[in-house]
Amino acid sequence: MATASVRDLRNHFPKIKQMVEAQGEVIVTDKGRPKYKLTLFTPAKNRKTHSAKDYIERLRRYQPRPISAAAAKSLHDENRGSR
Hints:
Layout: E1 2-5, H1 6-11, H2 13-23, E2 25-30, E3 33-39, H3 55-62, H4 69-80
């Protein structure tokens, strides 16, 4: 495992980058004490992307066919009451 100081990181980054690529990780020291660990970035696995919701299909699941005009009028009149 390789080590480098913060100063090396600032002044000689290409060298430190090669060390990370060759060895996989580098410990970075600050004032002589290990503080940070540089590792190669590995992207996360692709997650399933959710498709857009189909609201018309959801509506059809709950109400497979529209109500007739007469049924709609009677429902409206019933909800309206004596107003």
